[in-house]
Design a protein that fits this description.
Structural class: mainly alpha
InterPro entries: HD, HD_metazoa, Homeobox_CS, Homeodomain-like_sf, TLX1/2/3
Strand content: under 5%
GO cellular component, one term: nucleus
Largest sheet: 2 strands, antiparallel
Number of helices: 7
Order of helices and strands: EHHEHHHHH
Strand order of the largest sheet: 1-2
Mean pLDDT: 76
Region (Disordered): 48-69
Subcellular location: Nucleus
Main location: nucleus
Length: 185
Amino acid sequence: PLALPVPLAPSPLPSPRVLPCCALLGSPPAPPDAAVPTAALSPFAVTRRIGHPYQNRTPPKRKKPRTSFSRVQICELEKRFHRQKYLASAERATLAKALKMTDAQVKTWFQNRRTKWRRQTAEEREAERQQANRLMLHLQQEAFQKSLAQPLPQDPLCMHNSSLYALQNLQPWAEDNKVTSVSGV
């Protein structure tokens, strides 16, 4: 870790003379009237570690190992969850005692199981929605294909007017009705 200087609080007592760096290294001291390096006179003489102020107070807690439950315990918990998604504290304590588990273990297991249940039901709903969309698209496609195969009912007004009759029978999406150029007219 890097170290930063920390300012010292001013002392009411006279401070001893601060020695220049060269005195600490064994060099001859500078005369008293010589300039003393500003770093030696800095009020930031004490250093401390960088980091969050609460970081160095207590050691970090060790993560608890994952709890393993027996098959019998899981089976009983699943049966109970299938019947009841939430337990009252008395029910939870009774179940914990019957399964030789702690109250906190049962509570945590139910919380985790509800989270898994919500995710699963959301995925199932999404799959059902997608299946319904595919079915609707298929039905629409079938209806469209049937409408193309069936001839249009003749409108009595169009039967007497050749222009309206031609417009009624025009099907631009059909392959056999290609648009031809009118360059020769």
